[in-house]
Amino acid sequence: MNFDPEVKTLTKQTKNFRKFNVDEVREDFPILKRLVNGKPLVYLDNAATSQKPQSVIDAITNYYTYENANIHRGLHFLSELATEAYEGARLKVKEFLNAMSVSEIIFVRGATEGINLVANSLCRANYFDDGDEIIISHMEHHSNIVPWQLLCERKNLKLKIVPVNEKGEFIFEEFEKLISDKTKLVSIVHISNALGTINPVKEIVKKSHEYNIPVLLDGAQAVPHTKVDVQDLDCDFYVFSGHKVFGPTGIGVLYGKTEYLDKMPPFQGGGDMIREVSFEGTTYDDLPQKFEAGTPNIVGGIALGAALDYLTSFDIQDISDYEDELLKYATGTLLQIEGLKIIGTSEKKASVVSFVIEGIHPYDIGTIIDTDGIAIRTGHHCTMPLIKRFNLPATARASFSMYNKIDEIDQLYKALLKVKKMFS
Ligand code: PMP
After folding, report:
1. Model confidence over 411-420: pLDDT tens digits?
2. Ligand 1 site-directed mutation target among 107, 143, 304, most atoms within 8 Å of CB
3. Is 382 one of the annotated active-site residues of the chain?
4. Which of 232, 239, 306, 333 has the highest Cβ tally under 10 A?
C-alpha cells in the first residue's frame, strides 16, 4: 500500500456557495417525489437517516459502472482510479472537519463502529487501570453507552453519568463535580438525536483538558446541521455516520488527533493494515490504514465524499438558519394541539421535536399518520435511559432536514389533529 498519508490540502479557493432554495433542493432528492399510501411522502425521520441526493446515487452507480476495483493493492488502471477516488473522499472529509491531516481520518462503518474502535483500541493499549472512570451523559445514544459498559466489564472501570435537567440540557455544574483525577475519558453527544439539545461541547473539551483527559464527541446528529471544526472544538476524537449526512449506510468516520491514534494499537487485524507479516510477528501500517483492516467500503467512502460535496456546495449557515426556522415553526404549531407536550426544550436546540400527546401512545400516532404518508419515528430512539428519565415509555419524534418545508409541518399538524379526533 503506497498511499502517502502526508498532510494534504485541497486547493483553497474562495467558494461561491449555491444559494439555498428549498424547492430547488427538493428537486435534488428523487425519493421526495414518491407517493406513500397514495399520498406525497412527508419525510420527517431525518434523525434516523437522511434521504440521498441524485449526485450521491450517481456516484454509486458511476463507481460500479466505470471504476470498480479493489484499492491500494493493484497497479492496474482501475485499481488506481478507485484508490484515487477513495483517498480523494478521505481528503474531502479532512477538509469538511478541518482536521490537520488525512491520516487523522479513519473510515469506519458508522458512528457506532468509531466509538467501539476507540474503546477497544484504548483497552488494548492498557490505557485504563482498575477503578478508572469514564464520563458520559444521560442523553447518550446507546452507541455511546454500551461500548463503554462492555469496557467497564472487561477492565473494572466505572461509568459516570452527567444528569440532564427538565429541559433536557446537560448540567455543566454536575459534570464539573464528576470530573476528577480518576477520569480517563469523556464521551459526549454533540447534538442529541432524541431531544435536539445542542451540548456545550467546546466548554466540555476545555474543562476536560484542564485535567488532561481526552474527549470523544459523537457528532452523528451534528454534521448535517452545523459547521464542525475539530481543531476549533479541540476534541480528541469525533465520530459521525455517512447516512445521516446524505451519504450511504455502512460508512462513517472516526476523526482522532494524531497524538492519540499514533499510540493506539489496531482494533482489527487483516489485509491492508499491515507493513510486514510473518509467523514470528507482524508490523502495522501507518495511519490511517492501521485502523482499516480488510477491503473497506470503497463505494461508501466515495459516495460519502459526494454527499459532503453536496452539503458543502451550500453555506452551512444558510442550512442551519433554515432548519432553525422549521424548528421554531414546528414548535409553535404543534404546541397548539391540546395535550401535546414537547420533550426537550433546551435553549440551544437543533431541528428535532420529540413529543407526547396525553392519552395516546406514540406508536398509535406514528402508525396512524403513516397512512397519510407522513414518516416520523416513535419509540425510545436508542436512548432508553433518557426516555426513562422523563418517565415515559416512548416519544414521537419529527426531525427536519434542509429539504423539509413549512407546508409539511402543517400536514403533520393536521394529521395529529386527526389522530386526536380518533381517540376522543
Ligand atoms: N449517535 C447518535 C447521536 C445517533 O443519532 C446515532 C444514530 N441514530 C448514532 C450515534 C449511531 O449511528 P449509527 O447507527 O449510524 O452508527
Report:
1. 999 999 999 9
2. 143
3. yes
4. 239
Give residue 112's Cα distance to chain centre: 9
Given pLDDT bands bounded at 50, 70 and 90, which one contains residue 424? confident
Count of domains observed in the chain: 2
Q: Are residues 291 and 333 in the same domain?
A: no
Instruction: Find the domain containing 268 and state its range.
Output: 64-311
Q: Is the same domain home to 277 and 174?
A: yes
Residue 155 belongs to some domain of the structure: yes
pTM for the whole thing? 0.96
Residues 102 and 170 in one domain: yes
Name the nearest CA neighbour of 306 among 80, 68, 62, 5.
62
Which pLDDT value is given to residue 13?
54
